[in-house]
Specification:
The protein is built from eight helices and ten strands. By secondary structure, the chain is α/β, with parallel strands linked by helices. It folds into three domains: about 70 residues, no CATH class; about 110 residues, HAD superfamily/HAD-like (Rossmann fold, 3-Layer(aba) Sandwich); about 60 residues.
Length: about 260
């Protein structure tokens, strides 16, 4: 028997290879709340600031695994670029407060929410949507899948993302690089801006040709040149999207807004 307890850990029944007993032994691994305030858990001191703790119990053996998140060097400059674009960054995590705040301080995040269950993550995303925001949720785990599905734009990390997260996502970053999200954001902003420009050009030319045809005798040659010329302008304007190199513009340079 195996059971995954959302936001807390896993538990099940196992049969030890070196045991003569036909009975299966209970096994648990996860956060402190999974152990229902067991006495031995209360005796274990809280981990230091920034440490992630996982407790294990099986057949009378008890222990804990301590991990520390390694923040990528490129994360802080990337988040600085996002803030300059007016994007608010919030970290949603099931980790303990100490570990979550340690990462938030290193990255200078706008907000951090910790010790969240998958349902609580979904509730936060829906709350922002009800307030008129358009939240984008980036995740890679099973616990992130519900909030990815609830977000205005769901983004999954394809290199190490779970199948559940990939199925719910609108956008999948095939490389395990958060920078690609910013590239996708800038690309979408530029694409929307070019679409608006193309609509203005094409509709403007058509209006001018109609006015010219109604107000005077418009030569057919001039009409064809105007119509086909506007088509070429729209095509060449759209081709500018092909010349985006890395999408990560200098944060010190002024940014265009869509």
């Amino acid at each position: 028997m195996f059971e995954s307890v959302a936001g807390l850990g896993v538990r099940g029944q196992i049969k030890l290879a070196d045991s003569d007993s036909p009975n299966h032994q209970p096994a648990l691994m996860g956060r402190r709340k999974l152990f229902l305030n067991a006495a031995w858990v209360e005796e274990i001191p809280q981990p230091d600031f920034g440490i992630i703790e996982t407790l294990v119990e099986c057949d009378g053996l008890r222990g804990r695994i301590l991990l520390r998140d390694q923040v990528r060097l490129e994360s802080a400059p990337l988040l600085a670029r996002m803030r300059k674009q007016g994007l608010k960054t919030t970290m949603l995590t099931g980790d303990r407060e100490f570990a979550a705040r340690a990462v938030a301080e290193q990255l200078q995040l706008d907000d951090v929410r910790f010790e969240l269950t998958p349902d609580e993550k979904v509730a936060l995303v829906q709350k922002w949507a009800d307030e008129g925001e358009k939240p984008a949720m980036i995740g890679d785990g099973v616990n992130d899948a519900p909030s990815i599905a609830a977000a205005h734009v769901g983004v999954a990390m394809g290199a190490r993302g779970s199948d559940t997260a990939l199925e719910q996502a609108d956008v999948v970053l095939m490389q395990d690089k958060l920078e690609n999200f910013y590239f996708a954001y800038e690309l979408s902003c530029r694409a929307r801006r070019i679409i608006r420009q193309n609509l203005a050009i094409s509709l403007g030319v058509i209006v001018m040709l109609v006015i010219g045809a109604l107000g005077a005798s418009l030569p057919l040659t001039l009409g064809v040149i105007g119509h086909e010329g506007s088509t070429l302008i729209v095509v060449f304007n759209s081709l500018r999207l092909l010349f985006i190199k890395d999408g990560l513009s200098d944060p010190e340079q002024p940014q265009e807004t869509a």
